[in-house]
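Hey, I was hoping to borrow your eyes for a little while. I've been puzzling over a protein and I'd love to understand its fold better. The fold is given in discrete form, as structure tokens running alongside the sequence. I'd be grateful if you could look everything over and explain what you see. No rush at all, and the record is pasted right below.
>
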Amino acid sequence: MAASEVEMFTGTTLIYILGIFCVGIVILLGIRKASGFRSRSSEPSPLERLEPLLPDAHLEKNEEQASPSSEQIEGMVRKRLAEYPDLAEQVVDFGTAEDGSLEIWIANKRYASVDDIPDARVREAISEAVKEFNL
């Protein structure tokens, strides 16, 4: 009978230890959540992490995604176009095509090359932004 009491004591002890362990995990998870810990699913995207380093690179909702440098040049183009009253609200968006090449979207129309853009002022704004970026 002494052996069964030892086994019972060992089983009960194991249950208590597991219970204490589970309570500890719940407490730790509560502390992590209260401290503002971000889970992997809510981590910022690579572009969001680079945003402080590239002040002109911003990815808006429903915008084509391009490289951070393209997003920065896009921001520079927008600033240049703002100098023209009739182009100040012009939607300019750089994106990446399926083949990896650059796409330029202006007023929801896609251009594969700067040379294809009909407005010379927009072409010039893009060219100047690229030159400035490469300095």
